[in-house]
């Protein structure tokens, strides 16, 4: 649980002067996602989970994935849009979880995809969903300004990374059996150590200097990539996965990110592609050579389905989110939202000092205006 | 335990440039309260607790309540006065705990007041005690200056809130039976989600903008209010309690607080009335309709007694605290305090650069000079 | 685990504008030490530990000791030198652990030295090792500039202290039996409370003002000193040990530190002598009068051997570390290090903006130039 708020919240505050809004957004996203997931799973929506502790852990997994997705568009949504993002994300996430792990629609046999710590269904899903949203919503004027950071913000990001680093083992081990727990925890720690050292070496090698942003982000890639196989890999394999993931992620931040913006006309605020997307997919694929007796076809289908579902769901969400803003412009009521004090709130959004402040300070974050 | 120091300490640093002193004060308050409570309970002062773990958790509850009380006068006491505050608070707190929960004096039957997570005896008691102290100590010149905050401090406060948010479930579930734990934890999380969303909506509605101070504070009101009934309420009821508590608390911060200063001639530095006082009482009263077979008279007596004891205890403490300062002015020795190196310390307080620095920078915090 | 990174990382950022490098260094040190220790213990290097959880906890103890040692030279090493420091430290640490606790070389009977929470083998060893390194590496021009800190950095340090304060009980109780755990946890908390109050009183008494650095550091001395006897001391004895350790440590920071720099020609960046060295030795010696039936000779031998091994190991390491830098100057390859992309990295260090930035900003930290 600690992992959910602190770590992700911190990681997102690297945008200078944007810290408070990012923290508020994190609060709203988590507070939207958890009750919806808990309620939906309780009534058997996309598969039933009877034990309350397991339901809670799964809900926290979902909220983590939502925070990853939001990382791709962080700073470019208005506050109520984060709530809407949470409302739209959770059903898609549950659908994917049900299809890939629970045998939903009969596409993959239940239990044949190995993804203990969620490399595929949490990290890759969140990142690709976020990319889909970003792709639909990114506009031209956003390319003109660069996202700045300063020493204080970097230090905050590093703190967030350290928090995540520390809580990652418990996150991955949350649903393994008690006998597997020590092995899993040590595997995750070793993978994180591997990616941390690899990130340092690659960062110095690729950029000719230590980039604090690389360290704060790519150091965690080992935790992302070990997710699928954390309960079964040997320690040596965990170290190798960690090193490869750290290298891949650093390469992503140092080389791919700038080209991504040009080629795909896409801004990924927090670099979720490089931290969660690529290492997540790598982790899912790593299960193929590592696990004996694995159903290869299932694993590949699971990965492929996750990519497709996440991307389409992201595109749809990216189309829906701006409706709310349009609605506000024309003082039309957005449907199914804010039934409490509805009119008052919507009007207040338009006149609010909060958003006008944001418009001046970080106007390049605003969408389509 | 984590909840005690980090969360509260952070929440209190919202006063600009005052962060370091607030953190030191937190250290001193906790370090005074814990050993006294542990020792007193160990020898059977106001009821005996034999199991050491339970004694420790109860001591941490007491320290949390003390930090709440101190929040009302934060920034207006000198460092040794925080130690004295801790010395005076703990016996009063233990007395109230003994009367309300332990059947002390025969006023309420032991075990008939439902307050699992301490809405009444921790939060309401601490807040009302703090108000009593503040009422006695607030002077006229304090009204002239406003308490400022900046982006960095706000970000610190948000961090403190997130920490508290995350550790709140374990705090409430600390003394329930293992079977009740999952239900309790989910209830607390749902209540926190409810108050977070409600705080956002009410903050925008009442102030026409998002107030970061509202989010950092009122988002936690759900955790305060669910305390009494966290082990027995249904999830839906928990959500309703959370939403109501978030609304009530935000209303308190947005509307009541400024009037409180005028009407009651009272400054409540951290707004403990609105975060802990009102939601705490609400939580205690919420047990009446929720719990079947509840002894209504006991519950109401428990709440009433807590209000009376806390307020009188606060007023008494508010009268005693300034004696120490007076003592220093006339170089008289305060009694029963600082027996080690006594004279040297007292003299050093008068000449200290620390306090003269404070006098210049935040002179409006100083009392009666 | 949380203790490892967050707390120590934070404590080390007190050097102004140096925060990000200190956090990166912490990451690298921990990521180097943990896998090496785990691997070495797994193959039976200096004694075998079969249970994986115990091995992990012991590895974290080793990493904590390494962070203490690094604290003595923090800010005066280049990034790759921290990795080398980790590589050199771990075998020495394991050797000492094996000799003192495991009966290695037959010098001390296995199990006769009482050091449950590691006052001797973690804290004193780390501090003395660090002093040895610092003694070899400290140069003349480093005396000319003072280490500065500002309010933000101090607040960070306080946070680090609070984190450590909170996680200290779980650290000390990590390897005791479940029955001893409550008593141990309460002992550690009481010792921390004692040292916190003592630090405040001594700081005011010795300096005529409250020093935030004293509070942030010496408040933890109780946790260091109670380590050896945390499972067996009575609560009253724990309080006394805490108070004495807090006083000793504050005396160290206020009085000894400046003289240490003159007499021993030695700069101890984080004051590890005063926080970990002296209280650690005090804690080890405190076992003599406290524990009945203790083998006095073994306990004293254990302490003496730790001092000797740590100091010699530190001196050796201090001689080896600069070789790497020399190597870079002459573009020679350092041996056994950075086999991946080796040449490229070394060259990049020389031209890197990172280090040139550091040279300007905190040139007094650089070694031999």
Please describe what this structure looks like.
3 copies of one chain form a homotrimer. Chain A folds into 2 domains: 2-329, Orthogonal Bundle (Ammonium transporter fold), CATH 1.10.3430.10; 334-368, no CATH class. Chain A contains 14 helices and no strands. The radius of gyration of chain A is 20 Å and the shape is globular. Residues 1-7, 13-17 and 328-369 of chain A have low confidence and may be disordered. Chain A has helices spanning 2-11, 19-42, 52-71, 79-100, 119-137, 151-172, 181-207, 212-218, 221-226, 235-263, 272-290, 296-329, 342-351, 353-361. In chain A, α1 packs antiparallel against α6 (151-172) and α3 (52-71) crosses α4 (79-100). Chain A is mainly α and 369 residues long.
List keywords for this structure.
disordered C terminus, Ammonium transporter fold, disordered N terminus, mainly alpha, globular, 369 residues, 14 helices, 2 domains, homotrimer
User: What is the H/E string of chain A?
Assistant: HHHHHHHHHHHHHH
CATH topology of the largest domain in chain A: Ammonium transporter fold
Q: Biggest β-sheet of chain A, characterized?
A: none
Just name the CATH architecture of the largest domain in chain A: Orthogonal Bundle
Please count the helical segments of chain A: 14
At the first level of CATH, what is the class of the largest domain in chain A? Answer: Mainly Alpha
Helix/strand/pairing class of chain A, anyone? mainly alpha
Q: What percentage of residues of chain A falls in helices of 4 or more residues?
A: 55-70%
